[in-house]
Amino acid sequence: MIRNYFKIAFRSFKKHKLFTFINVIGLSIGISAAVVIFLIVNYDFSFDKFHKDKDRIYRVVTDFSFAGNTGYNGGVTGPMPEAVRNEVTGVVSSAPFFTLYDFTASIPDGSKSPKKFNHEQSSVLADGRYFNMFQYKWLVGSASASLNGPYQVVLTSEQAKNYFPTLSYQQMLGKEIIFEDTLRTTVTGVVETLKQNSDLTFKDFISYSTIKSSHALQDQVQPTEWGSTTSASQFIVKLSPGSTVANVEKQINALYKKHNPPKPEDKGTTTDYRLQPLSDLHFNSKYGNFDSGSVANKGTLYGLLFIAAFLLILGCINFINLTTAQASQRAKEIGIRKTMGSSRGQLIGQFLSETFLVTLFAVVISVVLAPFILKLFSDFVSKNIRFDPLGHPALIVFILALTVLVSFIAGFYPSMVLSNFQPVQVLKNQALSGTGKTRSTMLRKSLTVTQFIIAQFFIIATILVSKQVYYALHKDLGFKKDAIVYVTTPYKNNTPGKKQVFLNELKALSQVELISIGNAPPSSGNTNSTTVTYKDGKKEIKTDLEIKYGDENYINLYKIKLLAGRDLTARDTAGQMVINNTFVKTLGFKSPQQAIGKLIDRSDKPREVIGVVGDFYQKSLRAPIRPLAIVYHPVKYNNNTFHIALKPQTAGGNEWKTAIAGMEKTWKQLYPDNDFQYQFYDESIAKFYESEQHTSKLLTWATGLAILISCLGLLGLAMYTTGLRTKEIGVRKVLGATVTQIVTLLSRELVVLVLLAFVIVTPLSWWVLQKLFLQNFADKTSLSWWVFALSGAGMLAVALITLSFQTIKAAIANPVKSLRSE
C-alpha cells in the first residue's frame, strides 16, 4: 500500500509540476534557514556543558555602585580566593586563576635568536585546583604534581606541538619556556586540548605559586590588596550539594567587609559579590568572558530561532494554500477513489505521503545549500561552525525531526480537506458548492494575512536597523574621526628615547599633518576612571570621572570644540585638567566659564580646571555621555599611543599608503620583536556597530526570503480564486467586462488582505522594535512614519506584481473554454 502511495504521489507531481516546484522551493528555503540557524544556536548553547557538576559551578564576580552609576567586573580582589577557601562554608572546592594576555614566549635552543611567539593570548596562572574543577585528560604529568612549585608550566597538546613540533609529549618534560624574557618556566605536564565547545581556551598554565617568587606578577595580582579589583583575577567555586547561592553570596560579602571595612569617604559607594553560573559565562557581556572569550547574545540567538520558525511557517502556509488551490483539479480523482472503496484514512495517508515526499525533496536541497549559506555569513559566524552531519549526530536528529514535523504541519490540513470530498458531489462537479470553501475561505485568507504580517515585519526591522547604523556612523560624535591613524607602542618596551625617535621620524613624513601622544582616542572600548570630589564650601559633590590622557595636540588633532578656558600645553602637568560640559553640569555650574579655575580633588590631590570642551561620545551610542577629563600625564603607560592626523589625499593618490609604509619602516627599526599594528580611527568607530551591521545583513536576507515565500503563497491564493471564478470571469467577459475591470475585481480581495496585514503589523512592529532594539541605544534614530509607509508601499507593489501574473492570464482567457460545459 505504501508503495502505491508513493507511485500515485509521483504521478501527481508530474501532472502538477508548477505546484510541486513552488512547494519544494518554499519549504527548502524555510528548512535551509532552520538547519543553518540550528547549527549557530546549538553551537553557542553547547559551551561548557560537559563539565562534571556544571550546575554547581559558579564564578565570583563584582558589582560596583557609585553615585547612581553601576559597574560590573568579572574578577575579584587578589586575597579573596584564599580567604573564601578558609572562611566560607558551603563551598566544596574552589579554583583561583589569573589571566595573562599579549605575552611573548621564547624557546631557548642555545642560539642567539631563539624561537619566539608574539602576542600569545592564552596564558594563565593556575594550579591543581583548576584541573580538579575542570577535567582535562592528562597526556603526561598530573594535576596533583605538575603545578606544585614555582616556575612550572603545563601546556595543552595544541600549544605543546606549537612550541615543540618535533618532540613527543614525554620528551617535552623539562624543556624551558621563557615568558616576557624574564619568566623562565619548565614544562611539567601536557593536557589534551578540550575538544568540546568551551570558553576555557587557555593553552599555557603557569603555576600559581610563581606569584610569590615574582615581583612583576605580585604587582599585577596584588595578592594582599583588598581594595583593588581586576578582571584578570578570576575565581571559580563549586558549591556543596544542598548549599544555596544566596547563603554563599552573603558569606562572601561579609568576608569582604570584614577585611576591607567601609571608610567615611566611601559613602555612596557599594561593592557586592555575586555568583555567576557557569552556564551564564558565554552569554553575559556585563562581566566579560575571561577578557578574551567571545560572548554570545541570547536575544540574538532567540531572534534567529524566531526567524527560522517564521520562514518555516511561511513555507508550510505556502504548501497549504497551494495544495488546497489544487482541490478542484483533484476532486474527481478523490471521488473515483472513494467510489472504488478507498477509506478516508487511506486518502489521508496518501496526501501525507505526498507531503512527506515534497518535504524530503526540500530537505535534500537544504542539505546541499546549507554549507553555501554558512559560507555566505562567514564574516560573523564562528569558524568552528561547520556543516558536518556525520560528525554531528544532533544535526542528523534535528533534520529527521524537522522532516517529520514539517510534513505533518504542512500536510495535515490539506489532507483533511481533500479527503472530505463527497463522491456524489464530486462527480456532479459540485465538490466545492455548499461547503463554505468558496470565496469566504477564512482560514486560507488568515494564513495569507499571517504571511504578509511576517514579511512586512522583516521589512520594517531591516529598514530600522539600517537607519540606526547609518545614524551612528554619520552622526557628529563631537570629534574628528576621518584621516586619523593611531599606533600603540609595546608597553613592555616603551622607553622615552625610542618614543622620541619614533615621534621625530613621524614628523619627518610629508603626509603627516599633526601628531599627539596619549592613551586611548576620544571614543574607544577602554575605560579609565577615578573617583573625584568637588567642594564649593556649602556642599560636596562626589562622582566618577573618566580620564583621557593626551598632550597639547590631543584636543586640536581630534577637533574637539573648546567652550571655555584654554587647551593643555607642554608646560602643564597632571595637576591641570580639561573637562567636558557634562562634568560642568554635574558640578552644578550653569555655564562652562564658571568651572574655570575650580579645584577638583582626585586621589586627595587638587587638580585645576583650565578648560572646558564640548561633549563627545566616549563609547558607542549605546552608552550615555559621562563626566570626563583630559589630562596630560608623563607616566609611560598613559602616553604610549601615537595619534596621527594625515593630510588629505589627492584624487587617486596613495599618500596614506606611503605614510603607513614609512611608519612601519621606522617601527621595525625600533621594535623588531613586535608586529606593526595600526588602525584608522573611523574604522574603529564602525566596529562598535558590527553587531548591528551583521543583524542588518541577516535581516535583509530573511526579508528577501520572506517576501519570496509570501508572494508564492499569494500566487497560490490567486490561482485558487481564479480557479473558482473561471465561469464567472467568462460570463463577465461575454457581457462586456474589460480586462482592466476583471483584473481589478480579482485583485481587490487579495490587495485588501495585504493592507489588513499592514494595519496589524504597524503597531506591533513599533512596540517590538522600540522595546527590543532602540532601547539599547542612549542616542538613537527616530522610528519615522516613512519606515512604515515604505514597508507598506513596497509590499503592496510586490503583491500587485505577483497577482498580475495570474489575474491578467485569467482576464485574457477565452470565455468559450470556461463556458463550454454549460
TrEMBL record:
Compartmental location: Cell membrane
Primary localization: membrane
Membrane as UniProt keyword: yes
Keywords, comma-separated and alphabetical: Cell membrane, Membrane, Transmembrane, Transmembrane helix
GO cellular component: plasma membrane
InterPro entries tied to this protein: ABC3_permease_C (IPR003838), MacB_PCD (IPR025857), Macrolide_Exporter_MacB (IPR050250)
Membrane topology: Multi-pass membrane protein
Start and end residues of each MacB-like periplasmic core domain: 20-254, 448-618
Organism expressing this protein natively: Mucilaginibacter ginsenosidivorans
ABC3 transporter permease C-terminal domain boundaries: 306-423, 704-815
Protein name per Swiss-Prot or TrEMBL: FtsX-like permease family protein
Taxonomy, superkingdom: Bacteria
GO molecular function annotation: transmembrane transporter activity
Chain segments annotated as transmembrane: 21-41, 301-322, 347-374, 394-413, 447-465, 698-720, 750-769, 785-805
